């Protein structure tokens, strides 16, 4: 009986580890987005711009260092946009490919998306006109040359 109980506890811990907490926004609806046309087409043209956009702690250079350690297995050169939400606490979710692409370009963008989902969670949330942190969409633009991230920047 003890072995069965131990096995049950072990399996339940494994299941919890495989299902991280879902992304939760601080408000019922995300009302803000950075000014990027491709992203707005995906998340809504009617969203307002925040007073300040979400930013990565350490800036773009620190973010680029992360992506330089995660090359893609391709000899292609391409650009892609990956959008995501940053909630008022700096947590990330609602990841999406904001650029248009089909076939191989879509497949490569999906690989970039998977790397983005694993990036360190070091984001400062956007702020509204009254200076309070708010949920907002952000977008990162990538240029990949021969599988290496050559340009990484956000709005």
UniProtKB/TrEMBL annotation:
Record's signal peptide: 1-17
Taxonomically, which superkingdom?
A: Bacteria
Task: Name the keywords, alphabetized.
Answer: Signal
Q: What is this protein called?
A: TonB C-terminal domain-containing protein
